[in-house]
Structure formats: C-alpha cells, structure tokens
Design a protein that fits this description.
Elements (H helix, E strand, L loop, with lengths): L1 H7 L11 H16 L5 H9 L2 E27 L6 E29 L2 H6 L5 E2 L6 E3 L12 H4 L2 E7 L2 E2 L8 E4 L1 H8 L16 H16 L4
Parallel strand pairs: 4-5
Antiparallel strand pairs: 1-2, 2-5, 2-7, 3-7, 5-6
Helix pairs in contact: 2-7, 3-7
Length: about 220
C-alpha cells in the first residue's frame, strides 16, 4: 500500500472531483460518453440485465516501473423487480502492478454489476476484484453475440473509455473500498454502506444520472 501511495503522489490532486456531488455529475458525463460510442450496444444490453453499476469518472493509472491506479467512484443498485435504482454509495478503487511501464493514463471506468454478490462486494471493505469477485472486460459491439454466455463468465464487466474510445485496462487485483468520508459528506452523517443501497436517490445530480440510465434501458431500442 505504501508503494501505491508513493506512485499516486505523482498524480495532480485536481484530477479527482472535489465533492461527492461533482463526482455524480462527472459520472453522468462518463456514462454518456460510453453509451455514445458506436460499439457500446453490448454495454447497453448488459445494463438491461444488470443488478447495479459502479462508475469511476476518473481512474488514474501511473507507471514508473512500479505501477499504481486509483479512482473515486459511485455505485447504484438496480432493483430487478421494480427497475428502480437505489443509492448512491461512494467508493474508491486502488491497485498495484509491477513490470516495465512508464507514464500516466486517465480513463473513465464503468463496471456493470451482473448479480447481487457483485453489488454486495462494493459495500464491504478491501474486496479484491478477480479474487473475491470475478471481473472481465465487457464485450464490445452493436449487440451481444447470441452465443455470449456473459452471466456465467463474470460477476462484473468493465468498460474503460478515454476521449470517446475504449481503453484497455486490467482490474485484476484491484481493491474496492467504501469511501466513508465522501458518504458522510454527502449524507451529512456516518452511514452504513449497505443501507445506502436501499433508498432511492434524492438529489438532482443522482436523479439525473439514474434517469439517463433508464433512458438507455427503456427508451433506446436494441442495436
């Protein structure tokens, strides 16, 4: 963890949203950017089958032989019976990698949570993607392939985008943590992470985001 901190000291602090409200606004921008990419039809179809979504508006990956990545995101749970989105829950993601690497990469990250276990993993501290819960790169294309057994392959499908294009990014070994500070700031008091995914969003920024998600699920025809 100390090595991750040393790497991330090289990242300018302004790349992350200053407040939870700004994080929601930026999350909406990333989902819009992703959904407008021509090959994002498969993402929309997965979203229709999902039980939640995690959005990291800015995930920074820094490499100086030892590489680290860090992002601050937000999670919503989707009630499969009513179709309503519940949340938000604010979270963080960090990871460490070794090998020949140099440079800085900044991407928007969207994780489609396909089942209840995937959603619950974001309410716990120090859950490892690829360890505690399976994660894979999301399928691309204007639609899902008929022989794509996506529900059995992974609990989470990831999409990373940079300037209107899909960007390759490995999340294996990344650690998900509840962002207690952001949740306390947003809700005004200390809260239990799992309880935040039981109530409907109330702020304009959160409602705007879930309304856009619903526009993709219910109004956009299958591609």
């Amino acid at each position: 963890m100390k090595k991750i901190i040393l790497v991330l000291l090289l990242v300018p602090p302004f790349v992350f949203a200053a407040t939870p409200t700004e994080r929601l606004t930026d999350a909406l921008s990333i989902v819009k950017e992703l959904s407008n990419i021509p090959d994002a039809g498969a993402f929309v179809e997965l979203l229709r089958q999902s039980e939640g979504i995690a959005i990291y508006p800015s995930l920074i990956k820094v490499g100086l032989v030892i590489g680290g990545q860090y992002g601050e995101g937000v999670v919503f749970k989707r009630d499969v019976t009513s179709g309503k989105w519940l949340g938000p829950l604010f979270v963080k993601l960090s990871g460490l990698s070794l090998g020949a690497q140099i440079g800085v990469q900044n991407v928007g990250l969207v994780l489609v949570l396909m089942n209840e276990d995937a959603v619950k993993s974001f309410t716990s501290s120090n859950v490892t993607l690829g360890g505690n819960v399976s994660v894979a790169a999301g399928p691309l294309g204007r639609s899902l392939s008929a022989d794509t057994d996506y529900k059995l392959q992974a609990s989470i499908y990831s999409y990373s985008v940079s300037k209107g294009f899909f960007a390759g990014l490995s999340l294996q070994g990344s650690i998900v943590q509840v962002d207690d500070e952001a949740n306390k700031q947003f809700y005004g008091s200390s809260v239990v992470a799992s309880d935040l995914l039981k109530t409907e969003p109330k702020t304009k920024e959160a409602i705007d985001l879930v309304n856009y998600l619903n526009s993709l699920i219910y109004l956009q025809p299958s591609i």
